Amino acid sequence: xxxxxxxxxxxxxxxxxxxxxxxxxxxxxxxxxxxxxxxxxxxxxxxxxxxxxxxxxxxxxxxxxxxxxxxxxxxxxxxxxxxxxxxxxxxxxxxxxxxxxxxxxxxxxxxxxxxxxxxxxxxxxxxxxxxxxxxxxxxxxxxxxxxxxxxxxxxxxxxxxxxxxxxxxxxxxxxxxxxxxxxxxxxxxxxxxxxxxxxxxxxxxxxxxxxxxxxxxxxxxxxxxxxxxxxxxxxxxxxxxxxxxxxxxxxxxxxxxxxxxxxxxxxxxxxxxxxxxxxxxxxxxxxxxxxxxxxxxxxxxxxxxxxxxxxxxxxxxxxxxxxxxxxxxxxxxxxxxxxxxxxxxxxxxxxxxxxxxxxxxxxxxxxxxxxxxxxxxxxxxxxxxxxxxxxxxxxxxxxxxxxxxxxxxxxxxxxxxxxxxxxxxxxxxxxxxxxxxxxxxxxxxxxxxx
Amino acid sequence: xxxxxxxxxxxxxxxxxxxxxxxxxxxxxxxxxxxxxxxxxxxxxxxxxxxxxxxxxxxxxxxxxxxxxxxxxxxxxxxxxxxxxxxxxxxxxxxxxxxxxxxxxxxxxxxxxxxxxxxxxxxxxxxxxxxxxxxxxxxxxxxxxxxxxxxxxxxxxxxxxxxxxxxxxxxxxxxxxxxxxxxxxxxxxxxxxxxxxxxxxxxxxxxxxxxxxxxxxxxxxxxxxxxxxxxxxxxxxxxxxxxxxxxxxxxxxxxxxxxxxxxxxxxxxxxxxxxxxxxxxxxxxxxxxxxxxxxxxxxxxxxxxxxxxxxxxxxxxxxxxxxxxxxxxxxxxxxxxxxxxxxxxxxxxxxxxxxxxxxxxxxxxxxxxxxxxxxxxxxxxxxxxxxxxxxxxxxxxxxxxxxxxxxxxxxxxxxxxxxxxxxxxxxxxxxxxxxxxxxxxxxxxxxxxx
Lengths: 450, 450
Hints:
homodimer; Rossmann fold; 2 domains; 7-stranded mixed β-sheet; 19 strands; 38% helix
């Protein structure tokens, strides 16, 4: 099975059928993106109406390409796709991606065409991704076989999306975020390669630490549950399922080929197979970032803050999430009292409010003492920007503590702002997640509990 | 009553007691912030240990200031505050802000001192803000009587915060956001000037379009409800109340003077007085932005999207929020069918999915036709960044439509990203709110319904 997909995920030669340099076209987007990885693999352009692209021959058909082809990317009008797929089968390519739309997603008019290309691919035993998809990206090997706006940074999140539009927006957003991707795969109609195959692939990818999925509907429920149940004990899967509500399901039914089933069925299936169910797009990536960077831990949370109010907001959410705020042990309280970092009026509680004038030494001592308490497994460190607050220095202390306590989860809460954004970027470059709202941080903390 | 607070909110002369240029100190923060408004009002520095500050005399006591003083800002150690307040009363200043900490918030040790200064102020009939607060800012008149890190932009949000730390973070964040403030007031222990007074003030401020409050606990429940009930029919009040949960209430009790009461009591009081209850910091400002910029409307929502999946996510949230997705009328459907902007395979539904290759003309026509349907009062316009998507041009179309239909609420959903952020900033400079997640947009849309 591994060999079956190698041509898709690590091709040595790629042919683009429907290559063009016409500005704004899907074909031109693909040319540019594939071109960015030209030092890693051989590229061939196929378009009977054009002689040259990027200074290289454009072949009239894939059958004229003078070498074997691992991956064929197909971006031609829907009517022509069956002919092209047939030629790819004759050429014995290793895998196909059909980005073209105009198949099952447009209803009865497109279904026979989809059945035809799937039939051809399966008879030839060539895996086919799509149709009606954005394509596939693997940043760390400079493979961008998609018409996405640019290549996001490499990292540990495997993102699998039924919607190409949504994947595009996620990629655009990644330009402002600090997480990266092991792979991004849009599977569109999922006519041949299914979500189940892609989960299997993401699981085997050593680069991927967490699998994030955007899902509209699912065909192979039982298979899905089997593979998810196998993966989730060692690699988390988070799914954002559109169509939670009846209204949403009706909206989904009108735009995808697959039926959006009743929400309860999905929720039950996710729960039984250990899948985390995100409610919004923000949650999907809030949680993915935490699960990608942090260890999974047992319950037991401490909150450290220089602002009482925001500590209370965090406590409210910890309670909503069913998390346990560890009681400070006598030993911990004694250590805090003995330290000369803390003002006399401080109350030694969890949340631990080290007061508005806390400097980095106070943050550092408090973190060290809290992390030395055995049953504190997650430490949420909150900073509000006060006169004395040196956010960058505090972030450096957090990174030091995370290195000293690798089995514990450190999470930062600092509102992004003019003064704090550079420090937040620095922190996240060291793989400690930051959240702009205490509620988002505690929701993510909950997902680390195993 | 108006005259009572004029010296606080629009002082012609300000004296800072505890002025200093020592880097990193509260006094120095206040000097810099007051200094930024030096062309608008006369400033006096008071500190017996210093001769000059910013090239001007530093007086040994406020009694030596050779002019009457509207506003006295007091930033001296807690033990000295009663003496200074007493002098301010002798000087007959118009109002006082006590930023110093060390009063009721530290418990029994600080309560008598707080009672003493309140007694002095009340006998002299001088309003006192604080103690234990960040101060007061009114950006449009360049008044920054606080030790906040900088002055945020002017705008229509009146922000009232029991916590100074939280206000600092909100100010830092505002540097990355596109909304502005009519005033920001931290009232700390609220020993004299209470939330009720500040609501009353914000209501009378013509610049303020919406009142956003961060609250930990409330002393004057009945008065609060009376004033809120008077204000909310014409000016929205949104409150984020910390201590929603029992755990949170315990955390709150340990750090403020006021008792955090049972959540149900607060919720009931808010509901009865028309106050919107935000659950998180993000909601507080998501909603404030919408209520500041958009008209309040009747129910009836349409969703326009170039990505089916994200349209489904929006529909799910609309359903959760109890919003009505208007059925497209026959006239609307006919107009959409007659227009030559739309591809044949399009389905004319709400959400209206104008498909991934939608250009600005298609967005513009769809918006025009939807907004002409009478019962569509809110239009949520979603853009995913696809090859054909010209986000800036689409944003311009949204602004045009908002001008043509001033009684309707237009809301944008576009994930902030490398390519879309400049267009989002442009849109919000024209007072159309953008949200990074469809769920956040629909939650805000719900709050516009009256």
